[in-house]
Write a structure and sequence with these properties.
Blueprint lengths: L1 E5 L2 E5 L3 H27 L3 H5 L1 H12 L11 H29 L10 H14 L2 H12 L3 H25 L3 H9 L4 H32 L11 H9 L3 H29 L1
Antiparallel strand pairs: 1-2
Helix pairs in contact: 3-11, 4-5, 4-7, 4-9, 5-7, 6-7, 7-9, 8-9, 9-11, 10-11
Length: 271
């Protein structure tokens, strides 16, 4: 605690004068940064629209009621495509992320100088690009449809699964690995009997969790032509058919809730 000397004796203070100035200077910088951000945002915002947002939202909501329930019979196939995009994309990502994770982990990589940086670059590249951007690129490359959506989900998920898996590999107990190695086992046998059994529970949980995330992400890929229920959503919005939009949003909500419930059940069963 700082002490300030005065005529009446020492005065105990929480901070020194210099520390007080430093704190106030940091506050000043923070306020200046927030003010600058607000200025740049407000400079590109049409406040007339923002002020009328409650009325616009109420008008949009009124156009969605009542939902066009008859349209729901046409959503089974897009929902099935969405489920397939998420599931197949997750499976592809899991298959691809396993060797990447083993190459990225310090304790299993064949080379910390050459192989590990390449594996880490693949993980970072996958994680840095959103699935919607992957879908935009893949629609141009392989054409619109479900296949582009599957690849977009897979490319996006490789980084997620690879990162969590290689961190789980690096945190394993070395005792079983040393025990297997002491028997004269080869490197492949050491991985199979010393490393894989320890990371399998984490790997299964990561896979299910990513599948749950991919269900949600695959619902919007259709907005850029990558298949799934997003195609119907985009078409209904473009046609200003808000009663159908309401049905589609409810279908997405129900599918996400079911996938989260199923994912939670599977993860609880694995733990």
């Amino acid at each position: 605690m700082a002490v300030l000397q005065s005529k009446d004796g020492p005065i105990w203070r929480k901070r020194t004068t210099q520390a007080d100035f430093s704190v106030w200077f940091c506050w000043l910088l923070g306020v200046a940064a927030v003010s600058a951000c607000f200025y740049f945002i407000s400079d590109k915002t049409i406040w007339v629209f923002v002020l009328s947002a409650p009325q616009e939202a109420a008008d949009l909501g009124s156009r969605m009621v009542p939902p066009d329930w008859a349209y729901s019979s046409q959503l089974w196939r897009p929902l099935w495509d969405t489920f397939n995009i998420a599931t197949l994309g997750t499976i592809l990502a899991i298959v691809a992320s396993i060797p990447v994770a083993f190459c990225a982990a310090r304790n299993t990589t064949p080379s910390k100088v050459f192989v590990r940086p390449v594996a880490l670059f693949i993980i970072a590249s996958s994680r840095s690009i959103n699935s919607l951007i992957w879908a935009l690129l893949l629609v141009v490359i392989v054409g619109p449809g479900v296949f582009a959506g599957v690849l977009a989900i897979a490319f996006r998920s490789i980084g997620f699964c690879g990162k969590l898996l290689y961190e789980a590999i690096e945190e394993i107990d070395v005792s079983p690995v040393e025990a297997v190695t002491a028997t004269g086992a080869s490197s492949a046998q050491t991985l199979t009997y010393g490393v894989v059994p320890q990371v399998m529970p984490a790997f299964a949980g990561i896979s299910v969790f990513r599948w749950d995330i991919n269900i949600r992400e695959s619902t919007i890929l259709g907005l850029v032509g990558a298949g799934g229920i997003g195609l119907q959503l985009s078409a209904s919005i473009n046609n200003l058919d808000w009663s159908r939009v309401a049905v589609i949003l409810l279908a997405i909500l129900v599918s996400v809730i079911v996938s989260e419930w199923l994912s939670a059940k599977i993860r609880n069963a694995l733990t």
